[in-house]
């Protein structure tokens, strides 16, 4: 009985600590009031998008700049904006289109597309009943 109470207290404390700013992303709960640095997130995305694609140093520099710009714009979006989902989809579309233009071979573009597609927002934002 005592261990159940302790587990319950710990769980309630954890939820109370995390609730002020949690978001679900890629199956990981993270605090949105203290997100990781944009450069770190962007470098990670660069690796995921271009895995198996050889980029010149200039292509890599330009790709990272494009991703940083998109992440900066994503973070500037205001929660509660009814158009936030469409804005996110548009930012991803522009990012991916611009990054695709850096690639010179059809095989690289096809690989990029396969790796980018699962990372894009899908469908419409679910509507909540008032």
Can I get a quick summary?
The chain has helices spanning 2-18, 38-49, 57-76, 84-101, 106-116, and strands at 22-25, 28-31. By secondary structure, the chain is mainly alpha-helical. The protein has a two-stranded antiparallel ribbon.
Q: How does this model look, in words?
A:
With 130 residues, this protein is mainly α. Helix content is 60%, strand content 6%. The protein has five helices and two strands; from the N terminus they run H-E-E-H-H-H-H. The protein has helices spanning 2-18, 38-49, 57-76, 84-101, 106-116; strands at residues 22-25, 28-31. A two-stranded antiparallel sheet has the order 1-2. A hairpin with a 2-residue loop joins strand 1 and strand 2 (28-31). Helix 2 (38-49) packs across helix 3 (57-76) and helix 3 packs antiparallel against helix 4.
> Quick one: biggest sheet?
2 strands, antiparallel
What would you call the structural class?
mainly alpha
Which term fits the overall shape? globular
User: Helical proportion?
Assistant: 55-70%
Helix/strand layout:
Blueprint: H1 2-18, E1 22-25, E2 28-31, H2 38-49, H3 57-76, H4 84-101, H5 106-116
Antiparallel strand pairs: 1-2
List keywords for this structure.
130 residues; mainly alpha; two-stranded antiparallel sheet; 5 helices
């Amino acid at each position: 009985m005592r261990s159940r109470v302790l587990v319950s207290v710990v769980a309630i404390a954890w939820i109370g600590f995390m609730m002020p700013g949690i978001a679900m992303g890629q199956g990981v709960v993270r605090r949105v009031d203290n997100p990781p640095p944009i450069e770190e997130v962007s470098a990670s995305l660069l690796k995921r998008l271009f895995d198996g694609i050889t980029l010149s140093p200039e292509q890599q520099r330009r790709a990272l700049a494009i991703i940083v710009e998109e992440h900066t714009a994503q973070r500037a979006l205001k929660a509660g904006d009814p158009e936030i989902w469409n804005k996110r989809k548009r930012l991803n579309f522009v990012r991916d289109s611009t990054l695709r233009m850096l690639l010179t071979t059809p095989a690289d573009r096809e690989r990029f597309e396969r790796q980018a597609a699962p990372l894009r927002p899908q469908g419409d934002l679910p509507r909540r009943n008032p």
